[in-house]
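User: Earlier you gave me the apo prediction for this protein. Now I'd like the version with zinc ion bound, so I can compare the two side by side. Same sequence as before, with the ligand SMILES added.
Assistant: Got it. Here's the input I'm using:
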Amino acid sequence: MEYLFEEVKENIYVLAIWDSAWNSYNNCYFIVQKEGITLIDSSKEEHSSYLVQALKQIGKTPEDVTLLLATHGHEDHVQGASIFKNAKKYIHPQERSLIEYPEPDQFHFTLLDHGVIQNFEYLWVGHHTPGSLAFYHQPSKVLFTGDFLCFFGDPLSKDGLVSVSNDLRLEWLEFLRNGGVEKDKLNGFLNGLIAMNVFDVDVMCTGHGGVLVGDIQLFVSELLTIGNKLQETQEKN
Ligand SMILES: [Zn+2]
Ligand SMILES: [Zn+2]
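And here is the structure of the complex with zinc ion:
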């Protein structure tokens, strides 16, 4: 299977591309609005044909994409950007040095640490890369976390790509409990979670694999509880 393409919510789609080189799903998201299509992340260049095929499935072409928002500058999130000639492309300025290819100047490096672009509210999350952003689509209550919180290299939930995914949530909680977020990065991660938890989220769309539906604030609170406990024990030692 080369990719999965599913509806997340009305007019919002996930494209999860199987990357055999990295043994992971790389996710991109299309938000179809009357102003045009917004694409969140664009996968690697070698996956561009899958983006074109997915758009075709909903009767669209790359020319219909008018806004591209990149969560961060890693190759699996920006390399496919070049085929979207009509899109204004945005990324946080601190990601500039991460982009070797494609031509970085096709991006606008004008996003701040918090702001609104069209009907997306975005937030600097301070973890994974220096300028990682989360995007919250206000009308649909869908949050795009990029790799701040993702399931890189993990299998999909037994319930499917877009699902409650309790199995994946439990795995993440276990991963955190077992020190999966390095000690010196834990504080940044927790601050990002606190910042993110102001949003009323129905669906959490991650950078790799699982798309989580429902009770997102509860999941974030559970992560915070575990993370805070870890931090307390670390401070004591
Ligand atoms: Zn990344
Ligand atoms: Zn990634």
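For your comparison, keep in mind: The chain has a mean pLDDT of 96.
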